[in-house]
Amino acid sequence: MDSTTVDQLLAAHSVDPTLLDPGPADPDRAQTRARYAGLHLRPCSACGKEEDCRTARVIVFPEAGPRWVDLCRDDSLAVMGPWRGPTTWEGILADVREVTAEMGLPLRVYTDKEGWSDDPGP
Ligand SMILES: [Zn+2]
Question: How far is the CA of 30 from the centre of ligand 1 (A)?
């Protein structure tokens, strides 16, 4: 799937930013979470689909200032950048090992063939 920007997505749907809800100029995570996890069902800012929006962000439009952009699942996925994390089990486990070591936590790896064991590391 090709990635697009939020600006490109809104332009493709001819969204008038002045009709979007005004938002804070620099929302923190709690404000953003409250927006998409709120009780109010909001239509997707891009396609207008009436479903639970999966993401919310504030875009500062030159002509309209900061506005909330709520996106449905499909449009959220359309604006996600390419995956930059590990793509192999070995790479994923290496990342998990690094994080758990930094946190001082033990790591156990469970598999469907071997049960579980303390992770011996690489
Ligand atoms: Zn949508």
Answer: 23
